[in-house]
Amino acid sequence: MLRLKINKNDNIQNQIVKGIIELTNKGDLKFGDHLPSITAMSDSLLISRTSVIGAYEKLVKLGIIQSKERSGYFISTIIDDNQSSRSTTKVMFKEKAGNKPQQDRIYHARDVRIPDVFVRNFFTEIRLRKNSTTEPLDIRQLMSDMLLSMRRIKANYSTSIITKNVISFLLTVAVAIKKRTPSPTIILEYPCYNKVHDIFSSLGFKIILVPVDQHGLQVENLESLSADCIYLTPAHQFPTGAVLSQERRDYLAAWCQKNHVWLIEDDSLSLMNLSEKTSSPIYVSHPSEKNIYVSSMALILGSENGASIGLLPADLYPEISQLENILYSEDSVLSYRLVSNYLHSNRIIRDIANLAHKRRKKYQLATEGLRRAFGQPQIWGIPRSIYFSFLIPPGITVDHDKFPSHLIPMSTIFDTFGFSWLGKRIIYPFAALEMDQIKLINDYFLKIAQEQ
Questions:
Q1: Same domain? 389 vs 328
Q2: Where would I find the HTH gntR-type domain in this sequence (predicted)?
Q3: Taking the model in full, what pTM does it have?
Q4: Within this chain, do residues 181 and 319 fall inside the same structural domain, yes or no?
């Protein structure tokens, strides 16, 4: 019988799932090993059959185990005993309840929006010529030009679509894939933005979650998995800030091509790379007919005025372009017109450069404060974004009642099951803070470090 310890005061299903994942990671359970039957597990642990059934169902959804008629349940993940601990298959399964407001906080940035003076002038012009014929929107071409200048992507105008945000684009992609594959499976990076998870789960996708470490998505885990599509943010993973390494990009692209998997790349956090050397999008470095690319202006223009551009394979474009019209409304057209006029103005590059400079100063102040207090706080994330994550070194005790409210411990929004590279990390949404607030956080951590 499996060596599982169950505390009946906590969620029993989750304990079983966590226990079997840990035994698989340690190598005590290997590919092909059979699990006890539902009845045997129930009798052994003195728990209800319902709890065992629920746990096994979660493990099946994660791809950890499979069931065969008349054969029972067996381990379906492959563990290589020679791999390092970071590349061992470790799959998470659950976000913590009530984490959505916390996740939305991470994406909030006070320094992001179209300047008020431009917005006022825009609506004044609309009001003065409200009876005139509206001119065609050129936002698609303007956003294509932005991708070329900032990410060196030559967007095919005839296979790109514009939506109000990334979630709207992902919805069209999910619906199109669902039409082709009635019971599709998608691999999501873990942690993952809850709205992305909700889009695919609400449409009946089987979801497999693969964790991220300091080098990005643990692509070694993919070898034992089967899926129709995979979604990830390789340039700046949410919410850790980790960047997918070049070696892992190569592996991921080869795996997707070998298994005919749609690769959905969300590059929204990379349009702020002015004067910075960054990794090329997978869409550019590993072109494929199965690649899908999306990027958003929201972190430059503000979420209320954001617009996203999605680049699609020719094979998928006809189905998605039909869905694009459904997403249009009078409100979105007005928003697109505002964004279009702003992108066409002579101030956009200057404003983005000023925004990047402001972000860089905040990032520098925050990271220097952490290094002064902790030496090597293992910072993941880059200045062009709006957040990064860090680790408080072992031996430093923090009073959570006095912990800076602007910072978000990873463990408060995700169930990380003791994986040290995730569970102990702190998310620092520096773009949402003023310089004085960052200085106060620096003073707080320096005082703690000096006292201990």
A1: no
A2: 10-78
A3: 0.74
A4: yes
